[in-house]
Amino acid sequence: MLQVTDLHASVVDADEEILKGLSLSIGAGEVHAIMGPNGSGKSTFANVLLGRPDYVVNSGVVTFEDEDILELFPDQRALRGMFLAFQYPAEIPGVRPWQFLKAALDARREYAGEKPLSVRDFSKLFDDKVEAVGIDPDLVKRSLNEGFSGGEKKRNEMLQLEMLEPRLAILDETDSGLDVDALRIVAEGVNSLRSPDRSFLIVTHYQRLLNYIKPDVVHILVDGRIVETGGPELAMTVENSGYEQYIKAAVAD
Amino acid sequence: MTLAAATGEKYAADFKALTELRPVSDWVSKLRQSGWDHFDSIGFPTARRGNELWKYTNLAALDQGQFGFQFDESDAVEPDVLRERAPWSDDWSTLVFIDGRYSESLSQVSSGDGVQVRNLSDVANSESLRTNLGTHAAVDENAFSALNTAFLVDGGFVQIADNREDTSPIHFLFVTTPGGSWAIYPRTLVVSGINSRSTVIESYISLGDEGGFTAPVAEYVLNSGAGIEHYRVLVENEETFHIGTTRVYQLDNSTFTSTSFALGPKIGRNDVHVLLDAPGAECTLNGLYLTTGDQHMDNHISTTHAKPHGTSHQFYKGVLSGNSRAVFSGRVLVEKDAQKTQAFQKDLNLVLSHGAEIDTKPSLEIYADDVQCAHGATAGHTDSEALFYMQARGIDEVTAQAMLMRGFASEITDMIRVDGLQDYVHGVVEEVIPRLQAAAD
Fold first, then answer.
1. Is residue A89 less than 8 Å (CB to CB) from chain B?
2. What percent of chain B has pLDDT over 70?
3. pLDDT digits (tens, 9 = 90+) for B191-220
4. Chain B residue with minimal CA distance to A84?
5. Is the interface score ipTM higher than 0.85?
6. Residue A209 has pLDDT above 60, yes or no
7. What CATH superfamily classification does A2-92+167-252 receive?
8. Which has fewest Cβ within 10 Å: A150, A179, B67, B159?
9. In whole angstroms, what is the distance from residue B246 CA to residue B300 CA?
């Protein structure tokens, strides 16, 4: 589904590269986790995949469902089925979550050649999902993410994930700043969406979230490169002994 | 004297013609003359150095304009055109003025619920009119107040009875028609009785594309406990000069809540001063301005707290594009006696192009020692974080930017509590968003 080959990227106008030859491959229906210490390039990778304009790709190839996506705008990538749950979701004054999701879902359905949902059908779907994700219904009457707590923002990301049903969902440190209850809700959301044709890439610093979402593959990212790839047990190794051994190894290279 | 000679002659000739036209009450005649004398002695203000009040707004182009007074009363506008192009509801009492002149046939007034809505010139003997007209917006207030008073013929007069309940909005609609380039002098006076409630809308709408000069003066008087919900809608064309003067006088525990919407004319100025002249008065001034092309919109807003326990808010927002310019000069003066005052000022701007410029200058001048005041101003480009966030959900950049602009504007437009008016303003915002986007970088 997603194929990343020798990806090099840096912040716009900066010389130093953050991603220094990252390669990985995610098959349909797989759940991958990327773990790594602070500053290893995890969030950069997640954002580069969606085409955040603050980053520039210097070389490498990224294909999504066999299509080269690096020249596509973020919205074009989203319409093809990519989704990023943000670490720090933006606050959007004056735009209600309802309006926002309606616009997003309409765009998606139009791209897929489907008619937009009627206001009535959309409202029903929206209300159901709001309840399922456990968001305070009063919250979605406010401006999107404005004045939301950290946990509320993350739940709202899950609401969007559930509404938009992407092919590939990238979760950028969705677990940071969450209490156990919120963590469980995120995990339940992901687990309920797992299917043979939907993949997940979970970016996290800690192993904690992986107690609830069992990954098929775990990658360790250090200094802009994947230094080790393994099964779920790799997350436990990191949990027990930290990233020190990988950092040392990366420096020794 | 700063008038260009030819311009000065034009206004002088029109004034002379007006005084000879028909007899008016002695006091009106005197008031007009004092307006003319004042204007004649000072002329239009200039943006010269040291003139703080007009530092950012240059009226040289207005001085070159040859805008004449419309002596003919006209109703050559189809009612359907008003319904389509102006805020309108059959539930409102609307006084219609065409090119500055009152149109009885187009106006639609329901009375009898404790409110008198009349054309000024029909009630020249009213004691209340005589007491209040030109008292709060005096001829020496500024050149435009003087000029407006010199050409005082038609206008809206509303007298609201004590304890009147707000049943339906009162609307003063000033339209200019295609084919003429008139100088119009809309005048309104609203006197609200003790503990009365009312909603008053002033709207200024161009139906054509020709440039004109609109110099409105509005006076609002709020007696004890009175409440006025006020709206001011400026949707004139890009060739028009609009210099408005609004003066509000508030007595104890009265509440004046105003929301203004301005689609930038060529040069626009919204000069508002509110005097809280008795304890416990409250005043909220909100405004939204949208400018593009070479438009210039100047909000000159000031509130004076003269007595204790008053509350005031100034909250303005602007979206600027193209090579347009906007000014927010907001002033709050808290006098020595005005203890326990609460005053807040905010001006937020979304600047979409490098050619656009906002000069924002909120200021607090405080002479009392027990007050709670705060102010702030911002100017920023479209939030790139927000834009990426929306794009990452599949919303294209143009749509996302429009949503952000609509969201930004909605903080003010959502405060419009008159349905028909809110729909109208939303409609105008929707029409303007693509134009703002087209002129953005």
1. yes
2. 98
3. 999 999 999 999 999 999 989 999 999 999
4. B392
5. yes
6. yes
7. P-loop containing nucleotide triphosphate hydrolases (3.40.50.300)
8. A179
9. 10
Position B44 pLDDT exceeds 90: no
CB contact, 8 Å: A100 with chain B?
Answer: yes
Please tell me whether residue A133 adopts helix, strand or coil conformation: helix
Mean pLDDT of A161-168: 95
Whether pLDDT at B2 is above 60:
no
pLDDT interval class at B264 (50, 70, 90): confident
Report pLDDT for B49.
Answer: 65
Spell out the residues 6+ positions from residue B338 whose beta carbon is closer than 8 angstroms to its own. Answer: B276, B305, B306, B307, B308, B310, B367, B368, B371
Greatest C-alpha distance within chain B: 70
Position with higher pLDDT, A113 vs B50: A113
CA dihedral B80, B83, B89, B92 (to 10 degrees): -80
Contact, B142 vs B271, CB < 8 A? yes
Q: Which residue has the tokens 């006197």?
A: B191
User: What is the pLDDT at residue A253?
Assistant: 60
Say whether residue B178 is in contact with chain A using an 8 A CB cutoff: no
Residue in B closest to A94 by C-alpha: B407
* Any A CB within 8 A of B124 CB: no
Tens digit of each residue's pLDDT (9 = 90 or more) over B354-394: 999 999 999 999 999 999 999 999 999 989 999 999 999 99
Inter-chain CB proximity A90 and B394 less than 8 Å: no
pLDDT band at B1, cuts 50/70/90? very low
Token pair, residue B38, equals 């004042």
Length of chain A counted residue by residue: 253
Contact A75 B407 (CB under 8 A): no
pLDDT at B394: 97
Tokens read off for A72: 């596509």
Mean of all residue pLDDT scores within chain B = 93
Nearest-angstrom CA–CA distance, B251 and B313? 17
From the list A73, A74, A92, which residue is nearest B404 (CB)? A92
Distance (Å, rounded) from C-alpha B394 to C-alpha B327?
Answer: 36
Quick check: A223 and A198 in contact, CB under 8 A?
A: no
Instruction: Provide the mean pLDDT of chain A.
Output: 92
Q: CA B44 to CA B144: how far, in whole Å? A: 8
Residues of chain A with Cβ-Cβ distance to B391 below 8 Å are 51, 73-75, 78
Task: Say yes or no to pLDDT of B112 above 80.
Answer: no
Are B182 and B99 in contact, with CB atoms under 8 Å apart? yes
Both tokens of A160, joined, read: 């969007």
Cβ–Cβ below 8 Å for B409 and A92: no
The pLDDT of residue B54 is 81
Q: Between helices B419-438 and B397-413, what is the axis angle to 10°?
A: 140
pLDDT the model gives residue A176: 80
8 Å CB contact of A73 and B391 = yes
Beta-bridge partner residues of B291: B320
- Find tokens 């808010």 and name the residue: B313
Q: How far apart are the C-alpha atoms of B307 and B254, rounded to whole Å? A: 13
Helices A150-164 + A97-111 axis angle, to 10: 30
CB contact (8 A) between residue A75 and residue B385: no
Chain B interface includes A113 (CB < 8 A): no
| Residues of chain A with C-beta less than 8 angstroms from the C-beta of B384 | 53-54
Contact B407 A53 (CB under 8 A): no
